[in-house]
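user: Please review this fold.
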Amino acid sequence: MPIPFFLVDAFTDRLFGGNPAVVCLLSAWKDDRWLQDVAAEMNQSETAFLVVHNADIFKLRWFTPKVEVDLCGHATLASAHVLWQQGIARLDDEVCFSTRSGLLKAVRRGGDIELDFPAAPEVPIKPPSDLLAALGVTAKYAGKNRFDFLIEVESETVLRGLTPDFKLLATVPCRGVIVTSRSADTSFDFVSRFFAPAAGINEDPVTGSAHCCLGEYWKKRLGKDTFLAYQASARGGMVKVRVANDRVYLGGKTVTVARGELLIEEDMP
């Protein structure tokens, strides 16, 4: 049978906001080349592929148009949304995903979905010269975790005015670059942007996994463990962040934009 897929805007309560993700429902894994080809065809920052493992756990992988990634927040939010919306999981059930980053969980809290993710704290580093040159900024702080560089800049004005040299930034060895600052709007605790040209995404609209680093980072600076964050991309999106022990809980809303079928039979290679 054809393969169903859904286009979902994540970390937003309105159509065409937040970060779009495609969620494909599979009965069994296809080979990696096929998964990557579909992600390239969909051409979203991430395409999620879901396989039912048993009654309680779903296998989940994420692909950009260029590469498979180890952790993705917005496409996990979208995946949980699809499972509940399609009646595959009951609305009052916790959804569990088996992934390359271990077991991840999602629950419904009021009108939001909350993800249970591993914390990804950074350590201070001396940033590569090409990184700051590509961003065109002076760093107030520079750090790195297992995925990304983290750069704090002086203000939200500086952050919003960034026009990176993406060709140069793509040469910096990392998944991506998180840039952050305190928010100029008292409604939010901090703001950020995320760039990942090496993975085929010049700027990601709203990056859930980046907040696994940002939550820990701003906890140390603001002396609190619960935040409302805003990712200041062109589409923009809000992320509720809660830090507890070695976990970060990411909350947000989702909207289904479209659904369809891949006109490829499930039993075809």
Summary: Residues 165 and 237 are 24 Å apart (CA to CA). Residues 123-245 form a domain with the Diaminopimelate Epimerase; Chain A, domain 1 fold (CATH 3.10.310.10).
